[in-house]
């Protein structure tokens, strides 16, 4: 059962100075509900956003705040706490705390614990979108990840400052779910996965292009889910406004031809390929070299078919386990089954698209089929559907690998 993976696990929860500190109360409640023991350590700034008394009542333990607490330090309390923890989870982790941890400061109790403990450290960032995107923060994150620190998030959306973008702390339910998953053997440990995401842009002239409504959210969620499942992930992405998942190699492209070249250059080195991109089917055969002028009542564009990336991957030798997507406005099952058979895929995930469905939405519904089977993954957020699909891909990939080895 999921709850048993956190039963009696000792989690040191660090809370830093961010408006998202209010979420820590719900996080503590969920962790204890899952059977974990929680010890809260707050920075001085965190206490300006949420009271220690609130977190103490929820955790059932006195909240620790002071590095120079005479009563605690008489028994080297910071070392005792550092040895006590199974995990050090810092949620929210402010931009300031990331910077201090990166340079190894030990100027408060929480930072000192991180240096003194050998337990895994997990940071859940929360900050303004511009702070998250600042080169200094990006550099701090890269250095910390290089040292083995886990970075979870941030999510993207509306922020307390009124702006919108990446920087929101992950929701407590998702954080607890990820902690529970740490107790499992990684589904795709050591497996190399390549995923395509987003739309492509096909140039009409230097300023205009043909494209589609794909936001790339599903492909990016799949990259995150595959990374969490232990895979080594390469994401070949068309133009989107999404932050790349931590720990994922991102190859950025514009056109279908560029995506084809990047995929085929790497296909021999991947075990699983997931074609989630909405690749343009046609491209202008001769894009104008200068901006087209509005001096004609009618204009004709001659289009030519783009390379079929999914079919080319499925026909490669050796070929990876190949998963396609079918986005349809009608006759979903019929068209998806035909695409599965025609391109000789190992699996296909089908979804309906149209106003309010599929593209440019936070949720989706997927129906997955493969030769000899099918499964309805239901409707859920794209993050949750990505996890369900990665679990199913792992299951099918494992079965096929065992079958090949036994054969």
Give an overview in words.
The protein has 407 residues and is an alpha/beta fold. The protein has two domains: 2-182, Flavin prenyltransferase-like (Rossmann fold), CATH 3.40.50.1950; 192-406, CoaB-like (Rossmann fold, 3-Layer(aba) Sandwich), CATH 3.40.50.10300. The chain has 14 helices and 19 strands. The chain has helices at residues 23-33, 52-59, 70-73, 77-84, 95-103, 109-116, 129-133, 135-146, 172-182, 217-228, 256-266, 309-314, 332-342, 382-406, and strands at 10-15, 37-42, 87-93, 121-125, 150-151, 155-158, 164-168, 192-197, 202-203, 209-210, 232-237, 249-252, 272-275, 282-284, 303-305, 321-328, 347-352, 363-370, 373-381. A hairpin with a 2-residue loop joins strand 18 (363-370) and strand 19 (373-381). The longest helix has 25 residues, at 382-406. It is globular, with a radius of gyration of 24 Å. The two termini are 34 Å apart.
CATH topology of the largest domain: Rossmann fold
Q: What's the number of structural domains?
A: 2
- The average pLDDT score comes to 88
- CATH class term of the largest domain: Alpha Beta
């Amino acid at each position: 059962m999921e709850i048993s993976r956190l039963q009696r696990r000792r989690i040191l929860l660090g809370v830093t100075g961010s408006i998202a500190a209010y979420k820590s109360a719900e996080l503590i409640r969920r962790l204890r509900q899952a059977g974990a023991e929680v010890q809260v350590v707050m920075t001085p700034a965190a206490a300006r956003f949420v009271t220690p008394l609130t977190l103490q009542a929820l955790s059932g333990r006195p909240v620790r705040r002071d590095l120079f607490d005479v009563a605690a330090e008489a028994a080297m309390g910071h070392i005792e706490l550092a040895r006590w923890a199974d995990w050090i989870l810092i949620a929210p982790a402010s931009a300031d705390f990331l910077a201090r941890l990166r340079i190894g400061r030990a100027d408060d109790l929480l930072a000192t614990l991180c240096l003194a403990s050998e337990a895994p450290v997990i940071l859940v960032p929360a900050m303004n979108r511009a702070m998250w995107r600042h080169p200094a923060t990006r550099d701090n994150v890269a250095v910390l990840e290089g040292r083995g620190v886990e970075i979870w998030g941030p999510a993207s959306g509306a922020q307390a400052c009124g702006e919108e973008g990446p920087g929101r702390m992950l929701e407590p339910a998702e954080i607890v779910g990820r902690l529970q998953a740490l107790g499992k053997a990684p589904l795709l440990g050591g497996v190399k996965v390549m995923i395509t995401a987003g739309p492509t842009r096909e140039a009409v002239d230097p300023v205009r292009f043909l494209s589609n409504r794909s936001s790339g959210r599903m492909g990016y969620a799949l990259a995150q889910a595959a990374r969490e499942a232990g895979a080594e992930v390469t994401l070949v992405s068309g133009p989107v406004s999404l932050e790349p998942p931590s720990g994922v190699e991102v190859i950025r492209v514009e056109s279908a031809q560029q995506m084809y070249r990047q995929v085929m250059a790497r296909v021999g080195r991947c075990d699983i390929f997931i074609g989630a991109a909405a690749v343009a089917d046609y491209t202008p055969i001769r894009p104008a070299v200068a901006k087209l002028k509005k001096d004609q009542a009618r204009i004709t564009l001659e289009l030519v078919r783009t390379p079929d990336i999914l079919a080319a991957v499925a026909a490669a030798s050796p070929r990876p386990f190949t998963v396609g997507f079918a986005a349809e406005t009608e006759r979903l099952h019929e068209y998806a089954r035909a695409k599965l058979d025609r391109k000789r895929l190992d699996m296909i995930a089908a979804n309906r698209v149209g106003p309010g469905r599929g593209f440019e939405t936070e949720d989706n519904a997927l129906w997955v089929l493969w030769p000899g089977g099918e499964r309805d993954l239901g409707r859920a957020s794209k993050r949750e559907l990505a996890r369900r699909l990665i679990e199913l891909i792992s299951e099918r990939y494992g079965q096929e690998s065992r079958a090949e080895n036994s054969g």
